[in-house]
Design goal:
Elements: H1 4-33, E1 37-44, H2 83-86, E2 87-92, E3 111-113, E4 116-118, E5 121-125, E6 128-133, E7 140-144, E8 151-156, E9 161-166, E10 170-176, E11 183-189, E12 194-195, E13 202-208, E14 211-219, E15 222-231, E16 236-238, E17 241-242
Parallel strand pairs: 1-16, 1-17, 5-11
Antiparallel strand pairs: 1-13, 2-12, 2-14, 3-4, 6-9, 7-8, 7-10, 10-11, 14-15
Length: 243
């Protein structure tokens, strides 16, 4: 017969083992809930690029553009979307507002080449400085009247570059005063959870904290779609868009 004292000790030890296992299990669950997740998906685009010029390009300073010869035309044919140039997927959330995020040490570039801005949509984190190099064999004059950041860089030649810092979130429409067909959009975002999709439409935003977000899809000059999604510890959530 088991002595009462030994039985009590065995019962206490059993309770302690169970309590320890439960505590350890809760600890693991808590750790899992804090694991960052991923938002990924596919963008399907079938339409022709509505921004493709349908009328001859007007050059306000014809001496700053090489002359067209032979069968060349200054009316480019319509093109389909090149998503890496025109699209951005980014996250918005109340929990992310007001947080401080480190800005990149390397400046993003809004290039000027072949009388076009590259990319035509540039996402940046608020507080970031953007470089505007001129790689065309002519002058450009980059400017914007958008409220988040007005600027006018003046005329500058090939091989030179100018920079602008963007300290307020919002949408900045960028133009060239010399070549009226040139335009681009800078999205100044409040958090670093954004990505440019590849030209096949695939994208992935990694290391997303657990929470509920609005996933926004920007294409060309407009917000093209949005969806609400909840990320739970370590999960990968699929969000697809059609345009």
């Amino acid at each position: 017969m088991v002595e009462p004292q030994k039985m009590r000790r065995a019962m206490v030890l059993g309770f302690l083992l169970i309590a320890g296992a439960l505590t350890f299990g809760h600890h693991l669950l808590a750790q899992d809930s804090k694991k960052p997740g991923e938002i990924r998906g596919k963008i399907t685009v079938s339409r022709v690029d509505p921004e493709s010029p349908k009328t001859p390009i007007i050059d306000r300073y014809s001496t700053h553009r090489p002359a067209l010869t032979g069968s060349e035309s200054n009316t480019p044919p319509p093109t389909v979307f090149k998503l890496s140039e025109k699209a951005v997927v980014y996250l918005e959330s109340e929990t992310l507002k007001g947080q401080d995020f480190a800005t990149p040490t390397t400046h993003p570039i809004l290039d000027q080449k072949d009388l076009t801005f590259h990319p035509q949509v540039l996402p940046i984190l608020v507080g970031t400085t953007v470089d505007f190099p001129n790689r065309d064999l002519l002058f450009h004059n980059v400017f914007s009247y958008s409220q988040p950041r007005e600027f006018d860089l003046g005329r500058y030649p090939t091989g030179t570059s100018k920079s602008v810092r963007f300290d307020r979130p919002g949408v900045v429409r960028v133009y060239c005063d010399i070549h009226s067909h040139m335009n681009a959009t800078i999205l100044i975002l409040e958090n670093p959870y954004f990505v440019v999709p590849d030209d096949h439409g695939s994208y992935s935003i990694k290391n997303v904290p657990s929470g509920t977000y609005i996933v926004k899809f920007w294409c060309g000059r407009e917000l093209a779609g949005s969806q609400s999604v909840t990320v739970k510890g370590g999960d990968a959530v699929n969000v697809n868009f059609t345009y």
